[in-house]
Amino acid sequence: MRSVLGRPRAVGPLWRATAVAIALVVLAPLGALAWTALGAGAAHWSHLFEHVLPRAAAQTVTLLAGVGVLTAIVGTGCAWLVTRVDFPGRAVLGWALLLPLTVPTYIAAYSYVDLLHPIGPFQGAARALLGFDSPRQFRLPDARSMGGAVLVLSAVLYPYVYLSMRAMFSTQPARLMEAARLLGEGPWGAFRRVALPMARPALAVGVGLVLLEVLNDVGASEFLGVSTLTTTIYTTWVTRSDLGAAAQIACAMLAMVALLVWLERQGRRRLRADSVRAMRAAPRPRLRGTRAWLATVAASLPVLIGFVLPAGHLVVLAWKRAAEGHGLSAEVLSGAMHSAALASSVTAIAVVVGLVVAWAARPAGGAGRPRAWWLGSAALGYAIPGTVLAIGLLPPALAVDSWVAERLGLPGLPLMSLGAVLAAACVMRFLALPIGGVEAGLARLPPSLEQVARSLGETPLGTLRRVHLPLLRPALTTGALLVFIDVMKELPASLLLRPANVETLPTLLYAEAARGSYEHGALAALLIVAVGLPAVLLLSREPAAPASSTPPEPAAPSVPSVPLTRSEAETPVPVAAMKEAP
After folding, report:
1. Which of 310, 317, 474, 495 is 20 to 30 A away from residue 11, measured at CA?
2. Beta-carbon count within 10 A of 283 CB
3. CA distance linking residue 513 with residue 229, whole number of Å
4. Rounded to whole angstroms, how far apart are CA atoms 500 and 403?
């Protein structure tokens, strides 16, 4: 396993076989999805193309376009303000702009429908201010509309763009902006013609992640009355019990996912390694007077709309419920325990599996970048909406469950009843997080560490245990935290694959909203928001400016921008996703 004079060989066949098996398991739901769709018959396809897909696809494209444009504007503008000028509250707003990430889209939708109801607090205050007595005299547009969905989803998803653009703007060299100003460009011209074109790759990454999150959403879109492809898949399976038609719609949705991934890659294909190798960071002039306070207000509005209002509304509802004697009910406690148990088990499995996949993809001696095909395949689930993944996983899971029940003589579907199928779906969905963290962590380590260990007689497993695992602990901890938080918030897969009569916090909240008693689930929603706060603390670290004399080593992100690609360890900007390396 070693060569004293030569370079150590890569990991053994057992590691590679295990990684390949994991990648094939992740790909299996896609094959099963295609098989189920083909088996449904041509009649289904004809009906879908005539009556279902045109409207759902049109609504989906409209929603994607609206949310993409709005998040790009808000995220880019806030990132530019925070990184390039100084104004009152800038230090606080730098991390506060990430707070909307703690509010899942479905919670924001439920809160704003309640807040903007004709007899809700906003419209009531507006009528009182204008002198009207009833909703018949004055009524704002209904929040349950395409415009409402665009605004609500944008309010909580813009931090994806803000994170990537903040990282890019923080590392852009001062000399280029100064050159633009010397050539006669004003502040707006320098931004439009120099800073923004350089930041295009980061913008593509952020908007790409936003659009994937919109495609994954089912609770907010359904509640706001927007019939997207995701909600159509869910209603087709749950309401009509037509798995074949749901699989066919899911296949059409996968084509849209593939298009988004291709567009994201095209947007950052001209990334250059010299974009952060600047001699010094751009200065940050301090705004004064009216301009300073306008900047503060502009940067505060996204925080107010995306976090303060929905979270404050949850606090008020939970306080009222507690005052009425309906505090932490047994139902909420049970949902919290189920969510925590699911998130803990998925996190443990995903971290171990992600470590195996990323380690097996290492090049010989740890030098160079990984080229193994299974690395991207195993991380594929992050780009696939949870509803699509659940529909694809259901047929093989039921087949395996029936086989296990027959072999062991058990009644029903034991794996489904124990939540194993849901756990498997969540592992596939979020496996990209630990894979990206480990891959980025390995890319930061000098190859000489492994080469020395192997030349001294260490096996690959011994090198992993004694050299790399201690150094990878921060990356593994970050990946575990992010997986845990994402599983706690996961709604689409939980709705389709959870065991009978078992509720998690998201499904409990979804059920209360469907019954029109959203306030009964306020405490559950507040718990979900609170769980996401550690992620904000993790992401709140502002990227360091380039050093004054020595070019910095490019920061390696913990997650690929879209988990169909290799690690961005050699990418010159730390903008892989909403997750930045700690």
Report:
1. 474
2. 12
3. 21
4. 20
Residue 535 and residue 102 in contact, taking contact as beta carbons nearer than 8 Å? yes
Residue pair 134/506 in contact (Cβ under 8 Å)? The answer is: no
Paired tokens of 328: 């932490």
What domains does the chain contain, in order, with CATH numbers? 1-31+330-504+556-582 (1.10.3720), 40-270+278-301 (1.10.3720.10)
Residues 116 and 139 sit within 8 Å (Cβ to Cβ) = no
Distance CA 502, CA 155 (A): 31
- Give SS3 for 286: strand
In this structure, which amino acid lies at residue 281? A
- Return the SS3 of 506: helix
Residues of the chain below pLDDT 50: 1-9, 272-279, 544-582
For the segment 6-36, what is each residue's pLDDT rounded down to a tens digit? 444 456 678 788 888 998 988 888 888 888 8
CA distance 453 to 76: 45
| H-type alpha helices, 85-173 | 90-96, 105-115, 121-130, 146-171
pTM: 0.82
Q: Are 69 and 214 in contact (CB under 8 A)?
A: no
Question: 417-468, pLDDT tens digit by residue?
Answer: 888 999 999 999 999 888 888 887 777 777 777 777 777 777 777 777 788 7
Q: How far apart are CA 493 and CA 325, in angstroms?
A: 33
Q: What is the dihedral of CA 39, 41, 45, 48, to 10 degrees?
A: -90
Cα 503 from Cα 506, distance rounded (Å): 8
Q: Which amino acid is at 123?
A: Q
Q: What amino acid occupies position 247?
A: A
Give CA–CA dist 442/29, Å, rounded. 29
Structure-token match 């099963």, residue found: 32
Q: Which residue stretches of 409-456 are H helix?
A: 414-417, 420-430, 432-444, 447-455
Interhelix angle 420-430/13-39, nearest 10 degrees: 110
**Is residue 177 within a helix (H) or strand (E), and if so which, with residue range?**
helix 174-182
For the chain, the C-alpha Rg in angstroms (whole number) is 25
Q: What are the phi and psi torsion angles at 173 (to 5°)?
A: -70, 145
As given in the structure block, the two tokens for residue 5 are 């004079």
Only one residue has tokens 């909240």, namely: 509
- Judge contact between 205 and 159, C-beta under 8 A: no
| DSSP category for residue 486 | H
Nearest-10 crossing angle of helices 146-171, 105-115? 130
